[in-house]
UniProtKB/TrEMBL annotation:
Family: Belongs to the tRNA(His) guanylyltransferase family.
InterPro entries on file: Thg1_C_dom, tRNAHis_GuaTrfase_cat, tRNAHis_GuaTrfase_Thg1, tRNAHis_GuaTrfase_Thg1_sf
Enzyme class per UniProt: transferase
Name of this protein: tRNA(His) guanylyltransferase
Keyword tags: GTP-binding, Magnesium, Metal-binding, Nucleotide-binding, Nucleotidyltransferase, Transferase, tRNA processing
Superkingdom: Eukaryota
The EC number(s) this enzyme carries: 2.7.7.79
Entries under Pfam families matching the protein: Thg1 (PF04446), Thg1C (PF14413)
Organism: Somion occarium
Length: 213
C-alpha cells in the first residue's frame, strides 16, 4: 500500500500528502493544482488505476510466497474542501479511524489467538466496549501495552513531500523530482514516510506549505 501511494506521489507532483490505513489511502493535492485542468473524472480514474496497478505490480516484492488469488480493486472519490481547517479535520478523522480499528483488531485477535475464544465469542466480549476497556483487556490478560506497539499500526502511514539536503551530485531520480538550490545548499523534494501524529498542530506547523499553496 505504501509503495503504491509513493508511486502516485512520484507521478503526480501536485500530490503533497498521503495518509494510509487499513485498505485505504487518501491523497492531498495542492489547492492551486491544475492537473488535467482539474477534470474530476480524469483525476479520479487515473489516480485509482495507477494505485491499483502499482499495488499488483509490487505485490511479489512483499509477499513472494503468497501469490495473488484474484485481481484486487480499489474504488475512489474526490472531495473539494472549502478551507485548510476542513482538510486537517479530514485527515484527523482518518487517523482516529486507524486507531479505533487497530485497537479493536489487536484486542480481538489477542482474545482469539491467545485467549482461546472463538471469533464469535471475541466479538461478543468486545461488543459495546470503549477504548479504556480494550486497553485493560490487552494489559491485564495478555500483558500487552497497546501504546508500545509500532506506530505504523496505531497511527497509519503518512507520506509527505519534503525538502531534504543533498550532498555531492544529485542522483538522477532526485533530479526528476524537484532539485533546487536554497541558500547555496542543494535540496531535493522527495517523498518521505512517517508514522506520526497528524491530529495535533506540530505536524502541520512544521509543514505550512501543505495547506498554503
Amino acid at each position: 500500500m505504501d509503495n503504491a501511494a509513493r508511486d502516485v506521489m512520484d507521478e503526480f507532483k501536485d500530490v503533497v500528502l498521503a495518509f494510509g490505513e487499513s485498505d485505504e489511502y487518501s491523497f492531498l493535492f495542492r489547492k492551486t493544482t491544475a492537473v488535467y485542468k482539474r477534470r474530476h473524472a480524469k483525476i479520479l480514474t487515473t489516480i485509482t488505476s495507477l494505485f491499483t496497478s502499482s499495488y499488483v505490480f509490487h505485490w511479489h516484492r512483499y509477499f513472494p510466497e503468497t501469490p495473488l488469488q484474484y485481481p484486487p480493486t480499489f474504488d475512489g472519490r474526490i472531495v473539494l474542501y472549502p478551507s485548510a481547517q476542513e482538510v486537517r479535520d479530514y485527515f484527523a478523522w482518518r487517523q482516529v479511524d486507524a486507531h479505533i480499528n487497530n485497537l479493536y483488531n489487536t484486542t480481538f485477535w489477542a482474545l482469539v489467538q491467545q485467549g482461546g475464544e472463538s471469533t464469535t465469542q471475541a466479538h461478543h466480549t468486545l461488543k459495546g466496549t470503549v477504548s479504556k476497556t480494550k486497553h485493560e483487556i490487552l494489559f491485564s490478560r495478555f500483558n500487552i501495552n497497546y501504546n508500545s506497539l509500532p506506530e505504523r499500526f496505531r497511527k497509519g502511514s503518512v507520506l509527505v513531500k519534503e525538502d531534504t539536503p543533498v550532498e555531492g551530485e544529485v542522483p538522477e531520480k532526485a533530479q526528476s523530482l524537484d532539485t533546487r538550490d536554497l541558500n547555496n545548499s542543494k535540496t531535493s523534494s522527495q517523498v518521505v514516510l512517517h508514522h506520526c501524529d497528524i491530529i495535533k498542530d506540530d505536524f502541520w506547523d512544521a509543514r505550512p506549505f501543505l495547506l498554503s499553496k
